């Protein structure tokens, strides 16, 4: 499966490059909200990179600039960026492609918060690319479908019956990207081809990412025990 963009994974960066300017909506750390851009990046970090005296936004922007990515929307993750997951779905004439990195060590359940000692950083950073333009309202609706699909995948992947039902992590980020030009899709809900395509690819990529993350954690725990 060839994605509709260039994907360059060279740790600590994972970079997505579009052929043309795309409109995006999301809450990435760099370039949140509505934007027009060509590149979206993940930066892999460690706890030592983000000590209490470090401004994470300034840190990210400095690293992006050093890589020639000053104009990119960007995420930060403690997950090995080589452990990214890609899924594609085609419904009618709409193609949706998801790229995500998944970590759940910072898991939370919506409506509550965990308090107490700090935990290891873990997050889910999700990009969805659509093959057709979206109206402003459809962009907002599309982001909600991404969040629904991500949450469904997490809820259905619990490792044990007694495990608390997380709905995401405290630092999840989502970006939806669509090309400019042409008649935009005005709706992106669950009854539409757009919504179905988004939901299918995000669910598949997040489910796979969650399974791999749990397997990696289990192997790490075994290694530490020995």
Description:
This protein has one domain: L-amino peptidase D-ALA esterase/amidase (4-Layer Sandwich), CATH 3.60.70. With 226 residues, it is of the alpha+beta class. Helices cover 28% and strands 30% of the residues. The chain has helices at residues 56-66, 136-155, 193-225, and strands spanning 6-10, 13-26, 35-44, 73-77, 85-91, 94-102, 107-108, 124-130, 168-169, 173-179. The model has no long low-confidence stretch (mean pLDDT 92). The strands form two sheets. Strands 1, 2, 3, 4, 5, 6, 8 and 10 form an eight-stranded mixed sheet that branches. It has a two-stranded antiparallel ribbon with strand order 7-9. It has three helices and ten strands, in the order E-E-E-H-E-E-E-E-E-H-E-E-H. Helix 2 runs parallel beside helix 3. Strand 5 (85-91) and strand 6 (94-102) form a beta hairpin.
Which secondary-structure class do the elements indicate? alpha+beta
pLDDT averaged over residues = 92
Distance between the termini: 40 Å
- Provide the CATH top-level class: Alpha Beta
Rg from Cα: 17 Å
Number of domains: 1
Gross morphology = globular
Number of strands: 10
The DSSP helix count reads 3
Low-confidence stretches: none
Q: CATH fold name, please?
A: L-amino peptidase D-ALA esterase/amidase
- Tell me what the CATH architecture is: 4-Layer Sandwich
Order of helices and strands: EEEHEEEEEHEEH
Query: Share of helix among residues?
Result: 25-40%
Q: What amount of the residues lies in strands?
A: 25-35%
Biggest β-sheet, characterized?
8 strands, mixed
Relevant terms:
226 residues, alpha+beta, L-amino peptidase D-ALA esterase/amidase, eight-stranded mixed beta sheet, two-stranded antiparallel ribbon, 10 strands, globular
């Amino acid at each position: 499966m060839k994605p509709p963009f260039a994907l360059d994974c060279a740790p600590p960066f994972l970079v997505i490059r579009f052929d043309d300017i795309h409109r995006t909506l999301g809450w990435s750390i760099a370039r949140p909200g509505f934007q027009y851009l060509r590149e979206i990046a993940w930066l892999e970090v460690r706890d030592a990179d983000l000590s209490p005296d470090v401004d994470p936004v300034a840190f990210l922007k400095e690293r992006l600039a050093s890589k020639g990515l000053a104009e990119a929307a960007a995420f930060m993750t403690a997950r090995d960026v080589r452990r990214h997951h890609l899924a594609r779905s085609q419904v009618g004439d709409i193609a949706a492609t998801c790229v995500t990195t998944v970590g759940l060590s910072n898991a939370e359940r919506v409506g509550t918060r965990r308090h107490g000692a700090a935990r290891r950083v873990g997050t889910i950073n999700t990009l969805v690319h659509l093959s057709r333009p979206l109206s402003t309202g459809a962009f907002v609706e599309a982001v909600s479908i991404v969040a629904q699909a991500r949450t469904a995948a997490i809820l259905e992947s619990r490792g044990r019956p007694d495990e608390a039902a997380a709905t995401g992590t405290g630092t999840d980020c989502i970006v939806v990207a669509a090309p400019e030009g042409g008649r935009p899709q005005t709706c992106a809900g669950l009854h539409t081809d757009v919504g179905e395509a988004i939901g299918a690819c995000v669910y598949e990529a997040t489910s796979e990412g969650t399974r791999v993350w749990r397997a990696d954690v289990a192997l790490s725990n075994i290694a530490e025990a020995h």
